[in-house]
Amino acid sequence: MASLTEAITTAREESSNFTNGIVSGTESPPSKPKRSKYRHVAAYHSKLQHSSLSRDAETTPSFLGFRNLMVLVLVAMNLRLIIENFMKYGVLICIKCHDYRKQDLILGSILYASVPCHLLVAYIIELSAATAAKETVGRQKKTEKEKEHDQKVFQSTWPYTAFLHTLNATLCLAVTSFVVYFYIHHPGIGTLCQLHAIIVWLKNCSYAFTNRDLRLALLNPAADPGLPDIYSSCPYPRNITIKNLAYFWLAPTLVYQPVYPRTPSIRWSFVAKRLAEFVGLAMFIWLLSAQYAAPVLRNSIDKIAVMDIASILERVMKLSTISLIIWLAGFFALFQALLNALAEVMQFGDREFYTDWWNSSSLGVYWRSWNRPVYLFMKRHVFSPLVGRGWSPLAASGMVFTLSAVLHEMLVGIPTHNFIGVAFFGMMFQLPLIALTAPLEKVKGPQGKVIGNCIFWVSFCLVGQPLGALLYFFAWQAKYGSVSRMRPDMPTVV
Amino acid sequence: MASLTEAITTAREESSNFTNGIVSGTESPPSKPKRSKYRHVAAYHSKLQHSSLSRDAETTPSFLGFRNLMVLVLVAMNLRLIIENFMKYGVLICIKCHDYRKQDLILGSILYASVPCHLLVAYIIELSAATAAKETVGRQKKTEKEKEHDQKVFQSTWPYTAFLHTLNATLCLAVTSFVVYFYIHHPGIGTLCQLHAIIVWLKNCSYAFTNRDLRLALLNPAADPGLPDIYSSCPYPRNITIKNLAYFWLAPTLVYQPVYPRTPSIRWSFVAKRLAEFVGLAMFIWLLSAQYAAPVLRNSIDKIAVMDIASILERVMKLSTISLIIWLAGFFALFQALLNALAEVMQFGDREFYTDWWNSSSLGVYWRSWNRPVYLFMKRHVFSPLVGRGWSPLAASGMVFTLSAVLHEMLVGIPTHNFIGVAFFGMMFQLPLIALTAPLEKVKGPQGKVIGNCIFWVSFCLVGQPLGALLYFFAWQAKYGSVSRMRPDMPTVV
């Protein structure tokens, strides 16, 4: 049949001569008849050959075509689901359906305004500590005795500083959590407030810890050579300024440094593009959740209620694709679009907010690479110091995950008004998973990496995420019923 | 959070020292604190970096992880559909439901036995022609005059030979088609008979054409040097034996050669494996069609009847995945498993029954590579001779596709008792598609190839196949109603 392309090829190649056609065509028979006028005798089977898919074949063919096919099938399957969804539910997107209570918005804004004030408090605490430190250093011509005395004085003052910081930081988190849990009904608004509070809390801690060590370094410079060179442009007490703190407050990082690498200028076009991406993706996510995630979640409630395993599994799988897309879009919107835009505006130089976590060959690599800001905070202010105090790395890591598990539960449990601990145990569950997959990083050849990568995707995106979402949604429904008033005409078919 | 793996890494690497841990870990901060005892001051942001997904990034990261994800999502989505299917229909597979009529089986077996006899007839025709040729050649010391006379004689005899062959071959095809169309109800049995008849018909043609040219070459050897060397071990008249023909009859090729490349021995283990693959895949296909394809087809009938475009589209898409899997499994079962097993038993050396058609960058490449036996037949006995007679390659190719379109319609239309011409026009439609995609083969860089490959997959596997299946099924239903008695309790929900 195939000869047509040859034909066309030949035709194109201005040679009406068939043999040339064949020659120029990709397909010339192993031994070509020498321009025989007897065309029916050509020996097309002239040598031993294996099928390209046989084990015996010398070279395995490329399977790139199948990759293209996979993409197409995925598109087709999802297009079909979209059509099916519309045929079942029509258009579910309606802004009015969401009941944003006035109170939620007011309280939310108040929290947003008040939370950063705690950073101001932290600044004042640091300022006093800094002046104290300056005085001690100020006195010239010190003897060793005096130096030691200074140390003692400092050692005795630190606890107070520490106490004040703890009080301040904890207050920030506690108040927000309390208000969100008891007075802000809408989970969306609640989550935003809670997220903001946690971020500021982390920044608070970093600010306090870093300045403490800087102060120590100042008090006995001899003891330690190890202050990064980059700080030299702004040595310790000089960094305790409102401006410096404000920069840290807005900068896309949770790790305080007196000095950060900076970009020479702001490319506003870059900012605009990133913001456009963010807005676009945010809307995309909203549409997806309203049109696809919501009905699936709604339909799965009775299934969970009766604990029908088969249908729960079916629901989780249906949800997994949607939640996966939402997750990926959300990741890109936050870590690529928003943080880059923010960084550009702040001329913040280090844009490594993530590395290629999607290739993670183990859960460990994933947690190291997907959320760099949090990872760096945990490493600098929790893991590293604990190990420095002689904790075993394992114990220190346990601590890290316990802390982040608590924060995760606060972030999800409080806005949804349900401390069901799924987020907490989900995080804690990472420890065994990491231990399990860690060996795969070491495996030679791609095999191990692929397996590890698949374990990561399945455990995290295809099962963990949707299952978690289902459970919190179920808990919510059990407590309040639907967030969005269901339109009466809306069927609840699976 | 991530530190745990470092932890584990560290722990594993017998160094309880954190700094070493970091060093040995994949993650060491750009400028590491020089074993500072002040751990909170480490400068983790110490140089300008871009996000790896940004345009500015020096190197684009690998996206292998996303390939793995695609595979997983495909598996998950289809698993879900399987569960959904069972929840809707339960188990649909039941052997009794199929009504194999006794008559069908009897007639089918008779046809299977009778069809090869036509090859025997072809042999007898060739034998007489060969003896005639031998006589003419036999006489020694020929003058040019005599030679010309011989030519004339031969030229005059060929039409009779040709006529007999045509009669014989056509009879073979005509009788089978007649019986299948009017007396064999079951489309499965019908297709098998029809396929067998077409194969034998093609072998018949090849046998006749090849021997004609061999005879010509024998009668004036001077005229043409071009007999393939591989034939020398069995020069013309010696190849006209029952044994030689029987081998061609059973060999996995449609192109007759007096001699084929042969393998030294039969590896029975190889044969067993291939047959196991074939049986396994055959059952797999049967299960798929019974459990998944059948209900989808059944549910789409009313949609087609009322010509509801949206739902027809939805049906075609739902069908496409299934028909695609069936198609791929069928290809592997026939071209890899069965033909290789057959070739091994026949010690047939040239196993190139297909090349990597899945990477086809155009429809033309696809038709050249997916079904080599038919492609080689068409090229050797239709395209090449026509071009030899001065046809334009385009016209010759048109001829090739018209012929194969006719054969396709016979293969599908006759067993389903519906000449609706979809198969025919489906094949003819390939001509414009090939012309359309041919330029993409020439495009530099992967871009063009990917586009061409996608056009191929969509046009052929995602739309062409399922749409064709739908239409023939619809025609069948319109004429006879369901093939398998539907169980009364079986719902026909979408």
TrEMBL record, chains A, B:
Q: Name one GO biological process term.
A: triglyceride biosynthetic process
Q: InterPro entries this protein is in?
A: MBOAT_fam, Oat_ACAT_DAG_ARE
Protein name from the UniProt record: O-acyltransferase
Q: Which residues cross the membrane?
A: 104-125, 162-184, 275-294, 324-343, 386-407, 419-438, 450-475
| Keyword Transferase among UniProt keywords | yes
The listed locations are:
Endoplasmic reticulum membrane
Say if the entry is tagged with keyword Transferase: yes
What is annotated as the active site?
408
What this chain does, per the entry, is described as:
Sterol O-acyltransferase that catalyzes the formation of stery esters.
May I have one GO cellular component term?
endoplasmic reticulum membrane
Q: Give GO MF terms, alphabetically.
A: diacylglycerol O-acyltransferase activity
Give the domain of life.
Eukaryota
> Which keywords appear in this protein's UniProt record, sorted alphabetically?
Acyltransferase, Endoplasmic reticulum, Membrane, Transferase, Transmembrane, Transmembrane helix
Q: How does it sit in the membrane?
A: Multi-pass membrane protein
Q: Principal localization?
A: endoplasmic reticulum
Q: Can you tell me which family this protein belongs to?
A: Belongs to the membrane-bound acyltransferase family. Sterol o-acyltransferase subfamily.
Pathway(s) it belongs to? Lipid metabolism
